[in-house]
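A brief tutorial aside. Many learners find it easier to grasp structure tokens once they have seen a single protein encoded end to end. The record that follows does exactly this for dTDP-4-amino-4,6-dideoxygalactose transaminase. Read the sequence first, then the structure, and try to relate runs of similar tokens to stretches of the chain.
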Amino acid sequence: MNSKIWLSSPHMGGQEQKFVQQAFNTNWIAPLGPNVSGFESDLESYLDQNKHIACLSSGTAAIHLALVQLGVTSGDEVICQTFTFCGSANPIIYQGAKPIFVDSELDTWNMCPNHLEAAIKDRISKGNKPKAIIIVHLYGMPAKLDELLSVAKKYEISVIEDAAEALGSTYKERKCGTFGTYSILSFNGNKIITTSGGGALVCNSDEEKQKTIFYATQARDSASHYQHSEIGYNYRMSNVSAGIGRGQMQVLDKHIDLRRKMNLFYKESFKNIKGISVFGEYSNNIVSNHWLSCIIVSKDARFTKEQFQRAMEKENIETRPLWKPMHLQPVFKHMPYYGSKNSETLFKTGLCLPSGSNLSIEDKERIFNTISQLL
Ligand SMILES: *Cc1c(COP(=O)(O)O)cnc(C)c1O
């Protein structure tokens, strides 16, 4: 059997172990230390917008602490892109609030500004103005930020920008992860860079960053004994994980370049093939990191999405359907939803293909040959 070709697997640059070794040498084996602050400042310079970043145990934790700091509590409503991974939406429930799901448009597959405005108007007419809007850049593709942020501004609602999949993507030459009232990043094992598990909350002031760290370390009051006036969480990133992150930062841009080349490889491979389209940027204003490359298999293709998946599986090549929209998830099926059928159609017809920065020439040949045999 051929070795497995994964959708997206960790890709170390080489210096990660050096930083981890330093953590061991100095006995900083704790959820604080020089690697944590080093990784934070690496990220702050990379995003380049005077941001203040707190590293956390996951991207989901970062969304949770954004909601906490925006004062979202029980009875509140929070608008969330329906076409996403559950990590975007679950923290709304942690806060006892109610998610209101909004459909995507087909240019970027992200939140549709028109459906967003319709949702806000309807919720206001029902007497409950949404407390926050969670916008996602799915698969690394920047959302229509100008339009979305102008709707948010018009109704004075805070934005949480979920850039978990979009580190290094840009919108009008500015990095994704710098547009929200709060923005979040993820360093889970399958993301564009990894700390084996981790995330970050991007804040607009040092005060917000310190408050984030306060909530992430059990909300301890400043007293020598352990005193608590608020409920906190154990969400800080470990100094060992942050060491991996520091090493990964050295290869981030190189790895983005390789992911973008994977996208070109698919555009080339599926060129002139009826019924298959490779998802790409619809405008020159945006650059996707192409975290995952995706295709849509339409009705006029010579094979179905399922046939394609089975053929790849036989060759031990991983593929995966696009994210199942949140409003179709059993756990969220009673939550309000605003939209047409865009995300549902994408879910039915789309597939993610192997996209890692570590795929070899042989891997690509195997993928290409499998595609060719199907035709
Ligand atoms: C991965 C991901 C998250 C959550 O990140 P974790 O670090 O896995 O908790 C949130 N939103 C999106 C869109 C993601 O892909």
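Self-check: The first strand starts at residue 52 and ends at 56. If you spotted this yourself, you are ready for the next section.
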